Amino acid sequence: xxxxxxxxxxxxGGFPESYKxxxxxxxxxxxxxxxxxxLTRYSIRNKKSFRELAKFLVSNYSNEFSYxxxxxxxxxxxxxxxxxxxxxxxxxQIVFVLERFSFSLKKQKIAPKKIYCTDPGIVDSxxxxxxxxxxxxxxxxxxxxLKRRKAYWNEDREIYYWKDEQQNEVDFIVKENEDVRRxxxxxxxxxxxxxxxxxxxxxxxxxxxxxxNDLTVLTWDQEETVEREGKEIAxxxxxxxxxxx
Length: 245
Known about the structure:
The chain is α+β, with helices and mostly antiparallel strands. It has helices spanning 2-12, 16-21, 25-40, 47-59, 67-73, 79-91, 105-110, 120-126, 134-153, 193-210, 238-242; strands at 63-65, 95-98, 113-117, 157-163, 169-176, 179-186, 215-219, 224-228, 231-237.
């Protein structure tokens, strides 16, 4: 039952109207937010480019981006305008941005970011996509839940992603005060050996670089504990993680 409800949430999202009136109603909600909360509130003149940027970011949820590349994609002359537009979309809670973690604040600020959509129903209704990507949807879901937990339970908690020069990546790192407390990978299906090894390698590299040994891979339904290099890596079904207290 939990997995069935989780599948419904990943498709329909969290807006009650989606379940009462149908998923098509989400497009109206999205349009109302774009027009009333963003375009009107912030007196945006270049409405076409703003709409294009919003749709691009929603379509590219769980992916990296940079402001300079966005500028060229949506034909906006000033990179500061692009940043303002992204800030507006964050303020009206269409998307939110995750920084790449670095011990150097300067490197952190200039590094690419990752974008997530606040509601999976909006993704399904608005995003330009030919097929459903369950891996990215699951990562987006985890990002939303981590943001929720930060808001509800711990103001000192910060969420980042991490990547080194060799492109080893950890999807989420949880930092409290000055310490990195937890590293989390998200993979829908890890029964494939190559996929499993890639997730483990990323965690081990991140563990060494960030001095953190709380290592987790969130999956759709696989549960086990793997030991590598003297460290335990917990594979946990995402539904179980979501109902943790």
